[in-house]
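Quick one:
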Amino acid sequence: MQQRLARGEEAALAELYDRYASLVHSVAHCVMDDDEAADLITREVFGYVWENPDAYDPKFGSLRSWIAALTQRHAVHQLRQYEHHGQSSPAEVEERVREANTAARADFIVTSMPAPLRAALELAYRERLDYRAAAAGLGVSEDEARRRLRLGLQLLSTAMEPGDPPAHSLDARQPRGLR
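Output:
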């Protein structure tokens, strides 16, 4: 993909956009909490990738991770610019940045976890099923469903930064994979 972008293949940009636009928009929206700002950041991120295809170095992680991190940095920068212009207090901005960082980490964890764990969490969270009902929905034993839920929640809990208050509810900032 990177080589195709470096050669100026517009089809490569279109494929990249199709693959990652929802991720970019989601990360930007988590930070900005505004659809128009997220749309603008999405365009700017893909513009940057198009103009700087060599900025990605696979030694440091996947393309998906790099694009998510690029989006996060750009959105946080934009949010701080808005704060600088008096639209939010510094404390409000830093709280939104902290929440967005946690949401981005949680999204990455959920989308990276094995499908059986993700499926168990989605049933339990989206459908509000207990482990018995999740087991039936997954076609596994109750012990296996309980194990998958426990492991998935343990992985997801690593998204919290030390000192973050415990999240009893993921509310509107829940990871995309759990909606």
